[in-house]
Amino acid sequence: MDMTPLQCQQARLARDTRYDGLFFTAVKTTGIYCRSICPAPAPKEKNVEYFPTAVAAANAGYRPCLRCRPDSAPGSPAWLGKNATLNRALRLIDEGALAEQPLTHLADRLGITERYLRQLFVEQVGLSPKSYSLYQQCLLAKKLLHDTRMPVTDVAMACGFNSIRRFNDCFKQQFSLTPSQIRKQQKPTLEEGKGICLSLAYRPPYNWDYLQQFYASRLIPGLEWLDEKSYGRTFQYDDCTGRFTATHDEGKSVFHVEIHLCDLKYLPRVIKTIRRCLDLDADSLLIEQQLLQALDCEQLEMTGVRLPGIWSPFEAGIRAILGQQVSVKAARNLVSRFVDFNPRNDGDYRYFPEPAQVSQFDLEQLGMPQRRRDTLRNFSAFAENNPLDDAKSLLALPGIGPWTVDYMRMRGLSEPDIYLVSDLGIKKALAALSNPIDDSLAAPWRSYLTLYLWSTLS
């Protein structure tokens, strides 16, 4: 959303929560930047400067406000534009790509040169890829210092810093405060025996009821759990296993999340994936404006729709293959039997297998055609050594068609512009409408149009 300075001024003076995360207000006299809903006395307009992102404000030399905590504001996807390469690079960096690998490796994965990657970031984000990565690492560290009792050394390691001295220097450079000074200003509450507890914000409205029902109809017991206010699940990365439970707090527009994790180096990736699965960064009001145009109506029957993500693109791909040409209930039963093959299951918790494990499974126990079992093996073998965000490569695999790839992209990568026009449920929903729709008017949010049409069936 491109906002004029006058619009930003009106939004910040009104402290309208609908604009939280769409822009940030920097105060020249104090050197601090804030969210649009900051409760501090409003500064004079002549002392104010507006930025589309927190990163842009920090790059201009401002430090985050300790009162409104702009690091916890829901992010706006609008500022990313339509640059697919940049979006993919930002996603990979947010998942810890540069904390674990050099810039050359990231450029190779994106299929571009390191020079072009640097140029793209400087032009679109305003700083280098490494600077962006360090800033995101420091933002996560600041959140952990605010919300948890984790020792500062553990916070540093969890955020990808291999040296406590490097962490202290980088943190002070970004925020003009040391980690210890941040910790002294907070009184985190954490009961003994609990995991890492955080609060993840979103921009309302948020239709939790629909998301809860969607997950409930596809729930795999032991892998996932659900009640009226919360959703949780297990996950595994290599030799590390973990789980989380996210509890919805509508009054505060946040999810209170408790994470149990055996290796803290995966924490940034876990938090980012939780935000994606719960679709906490969506701007529902902006999306619904597009849906109204596509459906040619004055009011939607359901508002605040969110995209229910699946933990990984591999899991989404397996679920899509098992769900080919069968009902939701039949697909859920097949997924549950597939999860049973994982030797890491310990009775209380079950874990979705990783690609390398599938070759050891006896898939003959799954009641499905041989061709589909072959598709599972081929897809898993491909996923062992290849990223799953290249649609053309996936479509070249036997048994993988457009619906399977699109479903995987929509729920496993949370791509916002996937329209499952070939889906049987979508066809039924379209047939029930009194007027034809123009899906192009919903772009770039057609994934939400898909979900909305599914919701009309119930």
From TrEMBL:
This protein's record includes keyword Amino-acid biosynthesis: no
Residue ranges of domain HTH araC/xylS-type in the record: 87-185
UniProt keyword Methyltransferase, yes or no: yes
UniProt GO MF annotations: alkylated DNA binding; DNA-3-methyladenine glycosylase activity; DNA-7-methylguanine glycosylase activity; DNA-binding transcription factor activity; methyltransferase activity; sequence-specific DNA binding; zinc ion binding
E.C. numbers: 3.2.2.21
UniProt xrefs under PROSITE patterns: HTH_ARAC_FAMILY_2
GO cellular component, one term: protein-DNA complex
EC class: hydrolase
PANTHER family assigned: DNA-3-METHYLADENINE GLYCOSYLASE (PTHR43003), DNA-3-METHYLADENINE GLYCOSYLASE 2 (PTHR43003:SF13)
Protein name according to UniProt: DNA-3-methyladenine glycosylase II
Organism (species): Photobacterium proteolyticum
Taxonomic classification: Bacteria, Pseudomonadati, Pseudomonadota, Gammaproteobacteria, Vibrionales
